[in-house]
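Retro notes
What went well: the complex prediction finally ran end to end.
Inputs used:
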Amino acid sequence: MNETSSVSKGCFVFKSASRKRKRQGVDGYMGDGSDDNGKDRFRICQDLRETVQQHTEVLQDQLNKKVLDDLVQFIKKHELCNSSDVRRQGAREIPTAALMLGVNVPDHTMTFRSLCNLLQESVTPFVVSLHAKGCATVKFLIQRVLEQLMGRGMALDEEQDDETALHLNTQCSIGDLCQWYNSVKIRPHRILERSIKPEVKNNGLYWSLPIVVIFKDFEAFNLQALQDFILICSQYTQELPLIFIFGIATSPITIQHRLPHSVSSLLCIEVFHSLSCTQHLACVFDKLILTSKFPFKLSSRVIQVLIGIFLYHDFSVQSFVKGLQLSMLEHFNSQPLSVLCCKKQEALLRAKTLSQKNVERIRHLPSFMRYVETQEPQDQVLLLTSDEHVKEVCQKLLKNLHKYHKNYYPILQCLYSLTSLLPKCPMGKHIRELHVTCNEKNVWEMEEYHSAMQLLRILAKDELVAALRECAGILKSANTKKMQNVLKQVDEFVVRLEELDNLHTEDLPGDDVACSRKDIQRRTDLHYLQKSLLEKESRKTRKMSSFEILRNEVLQYIDELVREYLTPAELQPLSEVCYYSSSGVLRQRLNAAPRTSIQAALSHPFHYLQNEALKTNDGTVSSNAPDLCIIYKLHLECGRLINLYDWLEAFVTVSSATEDKEADSEEYNKPKNLKNACFIQAVSEMEFLGFVKSTKQKTDHVARLTWGGC
Amino acid sequence: MQCAGYPEDKLRSLADRLPCRETQVTTLLSLMGEPDQYSYPSIFIYGHRATGKSHVVFSVMKDLELPYTFVDCVECVSPALLFHRVLLAFFGPDAAASLPRCPSLSDFVRLYKQMSSKTPATQTRFIILDRAERTRDMDFSLLPALLRLQELVSDNVTVILLSQVVWEKFRPNTGCFEPLLFHFPDYNKADLVQILSRDHHPSYTPELYASYINILLGVFFSVCRDLRELRHLAALNFPKFCEPLEKGEAKESDIHKLWRNIEPHLQRAMQTVYLREVSSMQWKEQQMDEKETTTPRGLSAHAHIELPYYSKFLLIAAYLASFNPARTDRRFFLKSHGKIKKTNFLKKHEKTSNHLLGPKPFPLDRLLAIFYSVVDSRVAPTASIFSQIMSLVSLQLLTQIGHDDQLDAPKYKCAVSMDFILAISRTVNFDAVKYLYDFL
C-alpha cells in the first residue's frame, strides 16, 4: 500500500478486501460449521427452492390461462370493431374489462405481469399499466400513460430522446398522445415491425392496434382523477382505439359505486373472473405438497399453521408458497440430517458415507429409537454399537420411506374421492384436511372415519361404481408395483359390480321392499330413515343381496388399504429427515407479534442481546440491563399514574445496585446529572413505544397506557 | 334564418343540421354580430346535459369558418394547457412554443397582445370553454380575467363559456365582469322525436323509424331525457325491433304487433343496459342468439366479496364501532354488564337512528377492543391483524379519517352497507343485529 505515495494530493481508492469473507458465508449460515455437509444442505435447499418456485410459476400460468385468453379475445373483438369502423358517432363507449382478482392485492402482480407479456406478444405493443400510487391527479395519470407509451417507442430513436423528455415535463395531454399515435401510424417503429405477426399485417388491421391501459388497483385510484381521465379519453375515441382493464379486488359493483352514471355510461364494461384464491390454493397444495416429487415434507402442524395464515389472515397464495420455502430453509438449516432429504439415489449414496456424528444423531431420532425397540435384542445391540450396520439399516429405511410416500398419496386421493361424495363431508371438505388428519394419527381409529365408512356402506351402486372408477383413474398415474396391484383389484371390483347388473336384477327380495316402504311412510324424517337403515345394516337378520355382499367386500378392501398405507408419517422411521415440524418457529416467523416481542425484549433483555451478564432469575432485573428495561420493570409496579420523582429514585437505586459493591470505582460518583439524563431519555423512549404518556391530571406524573400491575 | 354578414346558404344548412334549436342559433348569431364587429366580451351558455350547447356553438363556428378555439376544461389540468391551446389555434405553434415553462396569466396576456399586434383580428376570435365549471378550481384570477379578456388584450376576442351549472355558482366573491347569460332549455318530447327520427336506417322507411322512436320514448322518457343516451339505446335496440319484419312475420304497418314484440325487450333494457349493468356489446350479442334466454349477470349480481376470516370480523367490529355510540360498548361487549334499559341511558340526540346519521369515526383502539370481544377464539395482536386493517382501507371497505401520517391514533369509518355486513356475519355465524344499538 505504500506505493501510492504521490506528489500530488489526491484520493486513492482501495477495493475492500472483505469481499472474500462475505462469500464464505454459506457454511456459516448452515449449521455450526463443524459439519462438513453444510454446503450440501445449502445446495439441496437451493435446488429445491428453485424447483418449487418454477412449479408455482408454471402452475400460476396454467391457472390464469383461461381468464387471460378470454381477455385477449375481448380485446381482439373490440379491435375488429374499431377497424371495421362500425362505431357510431353517437355512442362513444370505451371497451372496458373488469378483471376480478380477489382481495389480496400483492398477489395480482404476477397475473398482471403475465397479462402484459401476453398482450404485448399477441395483440399490441401499446400496453400501459398504472398503479394508483403514482397517479394522484389526472396530470400524473396522463403523464404516466404518455411516459410508458412514448418512452417505449422513443427508446429506439435516440435522437428524439431529449426532446420528448422535455416535452413530457412541460405539458402532457391526450392530444399529444393522438399526435404521437398518428405519427407512429405513418412511420412505424422497428419495434412494431418486429412484434406484429405477419398475418395481422396482411389483413390491413395493422393501423388499428389498440392502446391498452391497465389500472392495476382500481379501488385505490383517486376518484376525481379516474373520472376525469375517462372523460378526457372519451373525447378521443375516434382517433385513439383505447381499451381499459380494471383490476378489481372486491366486486364489480364497486365500479358503479365509484363512478357516476355520466362517467360509467362512457364505458362498455365486461366482467372477467379469475380463479378464486381458495381454488388456487387447492391447486398449489395438490401440486406442491400432495406429491412424492419433492423429498421435503411438511408435518401436519406446519401445514395447519400455513393454512391458518392463509384462511384467517391474508388469502395470499404467494405468501403460502413463501411460507413453504421458509420452512424449507429452516429445515435444512436446523436439521443436520437433512442431507438425506433429497432424491432417492442421492440419498442412498449419502447414507453410505454418513459421518460418525450424523450416525449418532440418527440414533437419537425418536422415530429411529422406536424402530430399534421393535427389533430383536441382538439386532438392537448391533444398531447401538456398529456404525456400519446403522448405515445399512438407514439405507433400507430410506427406501421404505420413499416407498411409503409413493403409496401414501394415491391412496389418500382415493379415500378423498370416496369420502367427498358423502353428505356433510365427515372427513373434511378439502383434501388438505384429510391429509392433516391422516398425518396426525391413525385415521382408522377416528370417530369420523367410522361414520364415513358407515355412510359408504349404504352407498347406491352407481355412485360406488363412479367413485371406484375415479379411484382407478388416480391409481393409474401411480407407478409402484403395489399400486398396480390395487388398481387391478379395483378394476375387478368394478367389473363384478357391473356384472351384477346383468345377472341379478330380478331377484330383489320383494317382502323387504314392502316392509321398508311401510317404514318410510311412517317416518318421513330423514334422520330416522338413516338411523333405521343403519340399524338394519347392523342387525343383518335379513338375507343380504349379492350387491350388498360385494359392497361390503369392497369397503373391507378399502379399509385394509387405509390401514396399510395411510399410517401417520411420524411413525415412519427416519421421518424427521424429510419432515419439518417446528410449527412454533414458523408461526413466530410468519405471523409476527410486535407487541409480544417488545415485551419480551423489555422484560428479558437476554432473549435478544444474548449477553451472559443479563441473565437473571424470573421477576428480577439486572442492574446491567439497558436503562429502558429497568424503567419498564419499575413501571410495571406502578398504578395508573406514575410519579416521576419516585420513578427516578427507584431507577437510580436499581442502576447503582451493583456499583455499590464495587464501591471503589469512580462510577459510583457518576454525576447525578448523567443519571437524570439517562432516566429522561428512557422515559421518552417509553413514551415513544406507547407505554406511558404525559398527563395534565397531576403535575410531575405520567399516565400508564397498559393494564395490569398493581 | 337571416343574419347579416354571413353567407345565406351556410346559414340554411346550419338550420337544417340543428333542429329544434333555431331560436338559440338566431340569438347566438345576433349576439355575435357581424364577423368584423366587436362582439360582447364574454357569453355564458348554460343548460342541462345533452341540450346541444357544445354542438350548436361548435357547428356555428365550424360552418361559418370563424376563427375559434374549442377547449374542454377537463383536459386542461393546468392553465398552461389552456393558454397553449389558445395561442396555438390563433397564432400557430411558434407563439405557443414561446410560452414560458409555467406561464402565468400575465405571460399569456403579454404574448397574446404581442401576437395580435402583429396579426390583428379581422374577424371576432372566439375562445370556447366547454365544461367551464372546471375553471373555478384552477386559479382564482383565471375566470375573472377570461371574462374581460377582450379588454385586457385589446383585441376582438370573445370568450364563450359552456356549462351545466348556473352562473350564480360561478360568481367569485371578489366580483367580476358579468357575462351575457344564455340558457339552452331541455328538449321536449316532440323535439326528441324529431331529432331521433333523423338518424333512420337506410333500408327502412322513415315512418317506421319514427314510430319506433315513439315506442322507445314511451318506455324511456319517464326515466331519461338525455338525448345522447336515448340515441344510443335507439340504435342498440333497433335490430330487435326489425326482427319480425325480416322474418316476414309482420309488415311495416303492423305497428301494434311490432310494439308487442319490442316492449318487454325495452323494459329489460331499461333495467340492464341503461344502468350499465350489462355492456352494450353483451346486449347486442345476446340479441344475436335469441335462444339463450338467460340474461348475462349484471355488475350488481356479484356483490359478494370473499375475505379472510379475521378480516370479516374486523369489518364487523368496524361496523359496530361506527354505528353504536361508544358509551353502549359496555352493554354489548362486557359479560356482566347488568341490565341497562335503553330509555334510561338515552341522550336526546341519540334517539334518532344512528343508521340514518351515517357511520361515525372511531379510533383504532376501540376497533381492536370490539374485535377481540367479538371474535370467538383468542387472537394474538399480530402484525397481520394490523396489516389487514390497512388492506381493508385500501379496498375502500374502511376509510381512514384525517391524515395518512397520523401514526398515533388513526381513526376510521366503516364504509360498507348494512346488507353487506349481515351477509358477511351470516358466513361466520355471527348475529350482528343483536349487537346493534339501533335494533335493541
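What we learned: The longest helix of chain A spans residues 38-83.
What to try next: split runs per interface for comparison.
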